[in-house]
Amino acid sequence: MLPNDQDPIVAIATAAGQGGIGVVRASLGAAGPGAAEALLRAVCGSVPAPRHAAYVPFLDAAGAAIDRGIALYFPAPHSYTGEQVVEWQGHGGPIVMQLLLQRCLEAGRDIGLRLAEPGEFTRRAFLNDKLDLAQAEAVADLIEASTEAAARSAGRSLEGAFSAAIHALVEDVVTLRMLVEATLDFPEEEIDFLEAADARGKLARIRAALTGIQGEARQGALLRDGLSVVLAGLPNVGKSSLLNALAGAELAIVTPIAGTTRDKVQQTIQIEGIPLNIVDTAGLRETEDEVERIGIARSWDEIGRADVVLHLLDARVGMTAEDELIAGRFPGRVPVVRVLNKVDLVVSDAPDDAGAVTTPAASGSGGEEGSPAMPSRNGENARADAPVVREVRLSAKRGDGIATLRTALLAVTGARAGGQSVYLARERHLIALRAAAEHLEIAAAHADSRAQSLDLFAEELRLAQERLNSITGEFTSDDLLGVIFSRFCIGK
Ligand code: GDP
Ligand code: ZN
């Protein structure tokens, strides 16, 4: 059921539980002028001056004070939602907040005040043109950011940096479309048109700009969603030890996954601001044991979803025949780092080789240093350009070589360090950008073909523009809005 976007709504805007301050917020939808004043008069006994903090009592129906705090009144349209908005800041205890919320609902019964759905305030802000869709999404991403870099990037998107880049691109597409469509009315001049107007050059510049935005957005999506790094290998090679070593070397552990502890299955760490979700798995081997088999099947599921696989080996024995079989089953799109663990146990003439990184010649395609493959989400990369196989020698037990592994991980994912100068982007945005790029590519092909078809050229430009517009929400379905805003927290 879609929320009725005209209803007056109210919610506790601060996190559940105890806090120094708690905030109840109401946005009054299509309630007539004077509704906010009436509500304030009922709950506080007076109406504060617009946008001025007033220290007032919060009164129950009998006129007794529930609490005392700050009331703020934002007349439409100068508010977060663009509607009449009232905020009460009281003491942040759950009971006080509930009493205040109940009191507001009661006082607003005659205007149909109801509890807000998740994200409904921001949905209003979008519908009332206070924010575009990419900015509205950035609100949620800022709240949910798991690292500082992600938060800073979400802030940039919220300020409109991403939207501005998209708008500039759309404007160039529109200009080119106008040129083309003007020419369509004079068919005899079609042939000369592309030359005269430098349509090809203009298109090439648009495509280059789009490629740049895609790069930034991909980096932003990385900051938002992080990468899944799966530890795989035979039993006892040191997977769990490596998980602990990676997590232990981490000073600021971000979002510990609920219900997991140090030596459970996953840990989120960050390397240069990129959140990496490190997943431990059951050792891969042939077994008759039913329970172990289930664990191994689960391991392969994790590997199938991985952005990077760490293939652990015992440095004393190296790649065994079983390891070859395992490596052969890794999905082709996923970059693999081969980790030779337990170097401390290797009896060697060169004992100091922990941390060495090599790119084994046997690794096949795409292994050159300096050209790391981007992690391929959704398997979009062809096998040919995906896996970057590297080798790192380390000791999970002693910690030698862990720093090198962290650097190798960053390199192999193609992630840029300290990436807060990008916009935070979502998978939805990447898909739209990719679709727009494809339409522009087809448009270019039409322009280059001998039988230049201006009709088809114009149509592809139109489709590209449509996809770009969907990012900022110029054309969106109710379904999409429902999906996006339902994932917000209540009160935002
Ligand atoms: P897993 O089955 O792959 O998860 O392996 P574990 O992490 O449980 O380790 C298996 C055994 O190898 C344990 O006894 C670890 O202490 C030991 N081990 C793991 N890494 C190292 C290492 O770098 N050096 C040494 N000497 N022992 C290690
Ligand atoms: Zn283990």
From TrEMBL:
Top enzyme category: hydrolase
Domain TrmE-type G: residue ranges: 226-414
Residues that bind (6S)-5-formyl-5,6,7,8-tetrahydrofolate: R25, E87, K130, K492
SUPFAM superfamilies membership: P-loop containing nucleoside triphosphate hydrolases, TrmE connector domain
Enzyme Commission code: 3.6.-.-
Coiled-coil boundaries: none
Keyword Zinc-finger attached: no
Keyword Magnesium in annotation: yes
Co-factor requirement: K(+)
Cellular compartments annotated: Cytoplasm
Keywords attached to this entry: Cytoplasm, GTP-binding, Hydrolase, Magnesium, Metal-binding, Nucleotide-binding, Potassium, tRNA processing
Residues binding GTP: 236-241, 255-261, 280-283
Residues reported in the UniProt entry to bind K(+): N236, T255, I257, T260
Binding-site positions, Mg(2+): S240, T261
Free-text comment on the cofactor: Binds 1 potassium ion per subunit.
Record field: transmembrane: none
A Pfam short name: TrmE_N
Location (main, coarse): cytoplasm
One GO MF term: hydrolase activity
Start and end residues of each stretch annotated as Disordered: 354-385
Homology family: Belongs to the TRAFAC class TrmE-Era-EngA-EngB-Septin-like GTPase superfamily. TrmE GTPase family.
UniProt subunit comment: Homodimer. Heterotetramer of two MnmE and two MnmG subunits.
General function of this protein: Exhibits a very high intrinsic GTPase hydrolysis rate. Involved in the addition of a carboxymethylaminomethyl (cmnm) group at the wobble position (U34) of certain tRNAs, forming tRNA-cmnm(5)s(2)U34.
Protein known as: tRNA modification GTPase MnmE
Native organism: Robbsia betulipollinis
